[in-house]
Amino acid sequence: MGTYLVSWFTKVHTAQKGAWFASVYGWEAFRVGLGPIWPGLNSVTSWYGGKSSENGYAFLVGIIPSFLSVPSALTNGWMLLFALALITKKIGSWRSVLVSGFICCFCLNLFWFLSPLGLGLHEDETKLSGLRAGYYLWILSFALAAIALIPRKESFSNFSREILRRILLPATLAGIVFAGLFRVMDLERVLQKEVKARKEEKKQSSNTAQYRSVPLAELTPIPEKSEKISTPFLVMMEEKIKTNPSDPEPLHQRAYLHAIWGNEADCRKDFQQALLLSSNRPHVYWSMGWALLNLGRFQDAQEAWSKAWTPKEGEPEPRWVPSAMAMACWKAGKKNEALAWYQRAAEREPASFTSLAGLKERISNWNTKEQAWLIEVHDAWQRTYLGSGSGDILKRRLSGKDSNAPCSTCR
Hints:
Layout: H1 2-7, E1 11-17, E2 20-25, H2 26-33, H3 66-74, H4 76-88, H5 91-109, H6 111-114, H7 133-149, H8 156-184, H9 187-206, H10 232-243, H11 249-260, H12 264-277, H13 281-294, H14 298-306, H15 321-331, H16 335-348, H17 350-353, H18 356-362, H19 368-385, H20 390-399
Helix pairs in contact: 2-3, 4-5, 5-7, 5-8, 10-11, 11-12, 11-13, 12-13, 13-14, 14-15, 15-16, 15-19, 16-19
């Protein structure tokens, strides 16, 4: 068990991380093995896409079949069963089952060594294998557990023959099967192709882009005249509108673009048309509020947002309302109303609105102008609305840890 536990925190393999190679530890290798049935963003593996990710290891796609990697990862469950037998003192009654299981696990896990990721050239083609000590400790732990559970014979020679018959012979046969399977699948060729692609990616990431190295034909042409704004995203929106003129979605998306550029006339025209076509007018009014805000029409933005939701007794407003209204009221000069709205947002979502770090994370997808406006409200709220230590006071009261603390403005 000691060898097994050490292997979880020891380097197992050298793998691709982003455009560079890095070490994979035992606990990460377990996640990699389960990658085909346990996908997810920001995980330690990118099994299916094979794309480089700064947040995870990108193993060479197609090298290890999922019908081997998943069962291999699940063999760790046999060690847990062994630990349970030790704790409950049932080794004697479970011995034959445990021995057979450990032998099967040892034989199965040999495929990592016999695969191109084990026996193959790696990184700069100077290393014979990407496997590291953690793998060998891990697979050895299964063999050692099986040997420890095999009943002792009268002589050492008899015991050695028993180990040869029950462990080494099946392992040899399994190795022959795996070697033949990988040869038929031609995994070595796939590996070399992927390694070449990774090297090229690494080379490109290490080169600093030079302006003069870009052919002039690839540079974006500068328009001779700038009367009419046109960008790739705007062209895409206009193409959608042309293709499906009855769809209101691209209309109010284009309207927001006009607002960003300060083109109020076209912005209002698109919103009017979107309202005529849309079956979900509150959504259009929500988008209109953001556009009017960016045009500096703060009172109009409030009115648009007030049409985007209908107050219902006993039901809170949508979560976007307090922060949006706080910002619009603040810019419209309604300071007291703005602070009250911000207080409402802080009461409903203290993690997002009581601290500056939480607020920045909450509004990270807003444009910089919108972010600056709400941060201005936050600063005023934190310094003047609840007084000194307002953030800590509110967090304690909302968590129920300080229900008796005086706070006349909490409501």
